[in-house]
Amino acid sequence: xxxxxxxxxxxxxxxxxxxxxxAGWAVIILYLQNDSKLKVESYKVDQVIxxxxxxDHATNNQMExxxxxxxxxxxxxxxxxxxxxxxLEIFSDSKYVILGITKWIFNWQKNNxxxxxxxxxxxxxxxxxxxELAKDLKIKWHYVEGHSGDKWNERADEIATSFADxxxxxxxxxx
Length: 175
Hints:
Mean pLDDT: 90
Helix content: 25-40%
Order of helices and strands: EEEHEHHEH
Distance between the termini: 8 Å
Oligomer: single chain
CATH superfamily of the domain at 6-94 and 138-164: Ribonuclease H-like superfamily/Ribonuclease H
Largest sheet: 5 strands, mixed
Radius of gyration: 16 Å
CATH topology of the domain at 6-94 and 138-164: Nucleotidyltransferase, domain 5
CATH class of the domain at 6-94 and 138-164: Alpha Beta
Strand content: 25-35%
Structural class: alpha/beta
CATH architecture of the domain at 6-94 and 138-164: 2-Layer Sandwich
Low-confidence stretches: none
Strand order of the largest sheet: 3-2-1-4-5
Number of helices: 4
């Protein structure tokens, strides 16, 4: 990793054709460095890493969760977050992911992985994986409206849908 201080912003997305059907996930990791030339706190993009993958048969929600999971796996492998050197923010256009990890999961755990309707929580294993990766981190989770012109969300959508469609796409890995 290039910068070991500053912020990390992550955009995640998932896509499925047929829901379930061929599916893809995407992650864009933005390493931000404090721009010390300005008197106010301001950050500039220092490094961009793009990740993506596909499944032959999955739902959109499964891919949305997989994107968040893969992002945290990557970040924890780099280990900068555990050292407390960064602020971590994750952006998703999935209210399912945002509400699930910030609100619903605590009741699911208390209720033996049953939802409010007393039915088993869908994608339980993925939720458990996401929770285990996130539980010791200080993450700010943000909902971003899909297809609303946000540059990084649009790029994450392009990556996820390309993987779902099994189309080649160049992923950025700045050095």
